[in-house]
Amino acid sequence: MYVSPLVSIVVPCFNYGHYILETLTSVLEQSFPHWECIIVDDGSTDNTRDVVVKFVEKDERFRYIYQPNKGMSGARNTAFKMAKGSYIQLLDADDLLEFDKLNVQVNFLHNNPDVDIVYSDVRFFTDKDKNTLLLNYPGMDGIIPMPRISGRGATIVKAFLRGTIKINTALFRKSILNKIGYMDEKLTIAAEDWNFWLTAAIYKLKFFYLDIPDTCALVRAHSESVSMPDSKKLLKTRPSTEAMLESIYETYSSLELLKKLDSKVVSEIFGNKALNEISAGDIKKGLYYLYLNILWGYRKLYYLHHGIYHLKERLIKNIII
User: Fold this and answer.
1) What is the rounded CA–CA span in Å between residue 177 and residue 183?
2) 218 in the same domain as 135
3) Which of 127, 164, 265, 304 has the most Cβ atoms closer than 10 angstroms to its Cβ?
4) 83: helix, coil or strand?
5) Is residue 120 domain-shared with residue 158, that is, in the same domain?
6) Could you tell me the residue range of the domain that residue 311 belongs to?
């Protein structure tokens, strides 16, 4: 007999008491009833506690934890340690979930035991017009450039080195935390989630993009959000993104870890990185990554040939300059 699993919804919150009422209401309105919602108040000084306690008093599925400020990753990690569910849903305290998201994704994971992480699409809304859902940030055309692919291994790593999925779109098995660990608390906002999904891809966990109506994550576009693409916020988040990618390269340079990785994954991490570094002029770093790829990667002769070509081009350019 099929017993519906428990989903742990993880909501970190820092001074978002004016938004979290709507966020927790969207949890209550989920068509899937078997969930616990863990709200980690990360040192808020506003009315967050007062808002959340009302939900806790009315519904025992809500749990409230207060801690000194540790940042977004620290708050999520606190909730991970307390989660009782078989599946985990991440939800930012200013965002929402469409009503059928958990129901559809839980059923999908149950029927597809080989899939580790299922994710949906994302829509954006503003405080002024909450009923109009946008394909991109307000004022921007087209569909937001988020990977929308399924699979595992090198294909996913390649896609995730170029961009990442929105944090609220995914539902994942709690068991993956035993494989990839918790979120990196050293990374700042806008980088820690990218690192989390990329690490999952590097460890060959299987992702599946499921495009079904009423399962989107709804991201609030507002002046306080780091998601908003204004120039000042982008300038603040760009260094952390670069630092995140560099930390990936440094982490997986370990010979112990390289032995565990698929050769195609190694090439996606180090092969292309080597060519880019040589072309950009950092020959020492480029040759180091090329060496790692030749030792542990895929298509060794291909990268060796192109590495030598780029090296010649760079040396010629240096002589001319």
Assistant:
1) 9
2) yes
3) 265
4) coil
5) yes
6) 252-316
Q: What's the CA gap between 301 and 307, in Å, rounded? A: 10
Q: Of 99 and 250, which is predicted with more confidence?
A: 99
Q: Are residues 193 and 312 in the same domain?
A: no
**Does a structural domain hold residue 27?**
yes
Instruction: Specify which residues 117 forms β-bridges with.
Output: 172, 207
Do 138 and 17 belong to one domain?
A: yes
Place of tokens 């989107």: 216
Tokens 């306690």, residue located: 53
> pLDDT tens across 129-173, in order?
888 888 888 888 888 889 999 999 989 998 888 888 999 999 999
Contact 59, 28 (CB under 8 A): yes
- Domain end among 242, 266, 286: 242
Q: Is residue 142 part of a domain?
A: yes
Question: Is 113 a residue whose pLDDT tops 60?
Answer: yes
Contact residues for 211 (Cβ-Cβ < 8 A; gap 6+): 120, 121, 148
b (16+ CB within 10 A) / e for 251-286: ebeeeeebeebbebbbbbbbbbbbbebbbeeebebb
| Per-residue tokens: 168 | 């609220």
Tell me, yes or no, whether 247 lies in a domain.
no
* Residues facing 35 on adjacent strands: 7
The answer on 267 and 238 residing in a single domain is no
Q: Which of 201, 190, 310, 178 is nearest to 248 (CA)?
A: 201
